[in-house]
Amino acid sequence: MASTGTSMTDNDDAIVEEYLHRLDVAATALPMDRRAELVGEIADHIAQARSGGQAADGAALRDLLDRLGDPAEIVAEARDPGPDGSGYGPPGPYGPPADAYAAPAQRMRRPRIGLEIAAVVMLTVGSLIPVLGWLTGAVLLWASRRFTLGEKLLATLVVPGGPFAALLLVGVAGQSCSSTSSPGSAGTTTCTGVALPLWLGLPVLVAAIVGPFIVGGVLLKRAGDRAALEPPVPVVGPPTGAGRWGALEVAAVLLLGVGGFIVPLVGPVAGLVCAWLSGAWTTSEKWVATGIAALVLVLPLLGLLAVGL
Amino acid sequence: MEPGGARNPLTQLRRGVLEFCVLALLGRDELYGFDLVRRLSDVDGLVTSEGTIYPLLSRLRRDGWVSTTWRESESGPPRRYYAITPVGRHALAGFSSEWRRFRDSVDVLLGTGSGDGQHGNLDD
Question: What is the value of pTM for the model shown?
Fold first, then answer.
């Protein structure tokens, strides 16, 4: 009886050996490390089943191997990059399709236009940060390869300094007059700054404020259309280490960190926009950043209110 | 790349969905390979050959959707445990909502929806 059991086990071992050998031969098509990993995992699977008494006799063992499947089929699965995933859009209210969960098998994602969005945001809203905001936008704009030279010139010239610089200019350089009168002589009126007649000045001002937003919108639309036609790009590993630091991430951290000192409210908000556009952080990480930023934004407001009261 | 899976549209569909089923299982529990495979194949019509789940797990690990740790087991060889990562959870959440839309649309077109009836069957 004991000898029968031993021979059965020997026979079972031989069947398993033969199966693993077929798998190993089929797996020569795989890179060395993945071949070893795959054969190791399948060997473990069989060992787990046998140690759990689930392949007690020859028939059960054959059933186990049948369920595992043909070695060639298993290797084909390891070779195949998987079904072509058209990237699923993210569920959240943020940004363009981030494709963070496109089929991992293909490890490809659609090109994103984070850089272009950041450029337009900084060229328009970012111009609330004097000089620096618009300048950052201009640098990002010219760094993009999705715009033509003409489009870059257009976005730079409409309007240099951004819409809020135009507003600021009116405030600082706009005409202001003061009158003095001294006894015995006629009063004099001194004026500083330049003035356009109202009928011309007002439309120019409105155009200078609205123009950049229109140009920005058109450019983003074009960048999006162009990006959609580009081939998918490989996904760059999991979001760990240095890989997660792109232009967008640096901008987000800088704006969140010091943006508030340059322009209260708008700096951190622009930072949050960059952070949510970035694919480098998980949603929960982004919410944490948003929560902290909201706290930092709300506290001074409460302080102001308290002082005001 | 053999177009083997293309013979049967259900094979393709299964392959696309299977990884999210893996993520869903791991979203509830950390599991070792054998246990995970058995739980998947206990679900009717989902897995045809259990062995193909291991290459899939390997891909999920390389993509950072699952992480693995080795643990000693009281009986038998050490086990490799799989756990879902935050990135994997994000992917799973996204797929789940997309899947609901997809399933409902297909049900409407095929006339297989019947809404409550199906859910009732699942509950039984």
Answer: 0.45
